[in-house]
Amino acid sequence: MKPFKNKLAVTIIVLSVAFLGIIIFSVKNGSNSVSSGIGSVVSPLQKIVYKVNDKIKSSVDFFANFSKVKQENEELKVKNSELENQIVEYSALKDENERLREVLKLKDSKNNYDYVGVNIIGYSGGTVSRGYIVDKGTNDGIEKDMIIINYQGLVGKVTQAESNYSVVETILNENMAVSVMVDSTRETTGILRGYKENKNEDIVKVYNLPIDSEIKEGDVILTSGLGMIYPKEIRIGEVVSVETDSVMVMKNAMVKPYVDFNKLEELFVVVPKDKINVKYD
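C-alpha cells predicted for Cell shape-determining protein MreC:
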C-alpha cells in the first residue's frame, strides 16, 4: 500500500512541476497556449452560463413589461369598443335619415296634409295584427279615422283617439277594408283586407278585381282614394300571387306589404288641414 501512495504522490508532484514549467515558459515567450488550453475547458461552461443569464434577463424583461403591455391591451379594448359603438350609432343615424327622407318625399308630393310623428308604446289586443297604441292623441290634433304611415307605406288608421294616446289598427287586421288600385292596370275596384289564414308571415289580400284583370305577380298595390278615407296612391305592397274565383267571377291577389310590422319605428299620422270631417283628397 505504501509504494502505491508514494507513486501517486510522485506523479502529482511531477505533473504539478510540469504544469508550472509550462506556465513559466508561456509567460516568458508571450504565448497564449495556456489561455487557449484553459479557454477550451472554460468556454463551454461560459456558454452555458451566458445562455442561462440571457434567459433570466429575458424573463425579467417580460415580467417587468407585462403590466405595461396589459394596460395597453386594456386601453386598446376600450378604444375598439368606442369605435364599434360609433359605427353602430352612425349606421342607425344613416338608416333613420334615409327613412325620414322617404317621408319627406311623400310630404312634398302631398303637401295639403300635416304629418304628426308618434311612437308606439304598446299593442292593442296583444298582437301586431290587432294594432298599436301610440303616444299622442286629441291634445296633439289626432282624431279617429286619421291614417298612419311610415317611410315604407300604409300602416293603418286611428280607431280610437284619447287625450294623450291613440289606438291604431293595421291593414293586417281582417276587419280593415282599404280601397286600392293596381298600379300597372290602374284598376280601382279592389278592396284590401287582412288575411287571417296565413299565420307564418304578414300577408293581405285584394278582393273584387275584374275577372279579366291583367294583374300579375310583382305588381304594386296603392290606395285608390275612393271614398276619401285614405289619400290616393299611398304604397301598400307587392303582389305575390293571383287567383281566379270562378264562382264570384273575379280575381283576388295575395299581397306582401312593404311595411315590416315587426320593425316599426317612426310613424306619422296624416292630419287633414280641414278637420271638420276627416276626409282625404
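The helical segments are 2-29, 33-109.
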